[in-house]
């Protein structure tokens, strides 16, 4: 049977409340009492009940992590960083896999059942209204990788996708490519729309011809490989900006299967800088999104909201950078 708080108190010769305070972060307890309690707890093999503590404090220390892109290897890094950052702060993640679900109600009901203290929506494909639904329900929420806009009702942490799209256009222009294509992620995703907007606008300024605009159905290898066929139908295309590294890797294999060498016959530029991008088989030049900075900032914000709700939403955007490898011809 589990050792009880009462048994620890009796062995230590202190009150039950003294035992409770000893295992409550920030609670006042003398060094002498703490030593007695910890010694008794060690002898009995006692561990404080998190469930009991949550009932007493009205805090579960659960943070909902809502995502819908589990098939992408990039999310493995995201999940690892999120869980580590939460656990370092004594918090625990409650994972919600949306799959094809786009309505927040089911997720909201689940998170309410577990009485989460806060929510992080980690997705660039969900609309801003999704995260706003949690805010309206009174749950502190941060939209990570979300679309930033002036009237957003929630905290947003991520990047400026319009500027990143423009960065991609400049990257290709600097390498003297003149006829290009855009192979984006899902067309309905706000991140895809913003990257496309930035790329197309900057390309026009630079005199860069964009002769093909295609979209992959999902952020996946197979979707990228399939969508690349439409790009390869135009022999004039010299380089392709892909909205995601998995899409870009699929595009590279599609080009090779069609007898086109990368980068000799066609250049490929990716986005995200996942681990596979650095594999020798692909050596993908890509635009790195500062995932760690974004995640740490998201956790910092949601914890701050739980401890002391902020007066208004905050937008935190981090700069991206081009990671040079071998899927584009060298800059002059």
TrEMBL record:
CDD domains: HTH_LacI, PBP1_LacI-like. SMART domains: HTH_LACI. The keyword Repressor applies. InterPro entries: HTH_LacI (IPR000843), LacI/GalR-like_sensor (IPR046335), Lambda_DNA-bd_dom_sf (IPR010982), Peripla_BP_I (IPR028082). Pfam families: LacI, Peripla_BP_3. The keyword DNA-binding applies. Residues 3-57 form the HTH lacI-type domain. Keywords: DNA-binding, Repressor, Transcription, Transcription regulation. GO terms for molecular function: DNA binding. It comes from the Bacteria. This is LacI family DNA-binding transcriptional regulator.
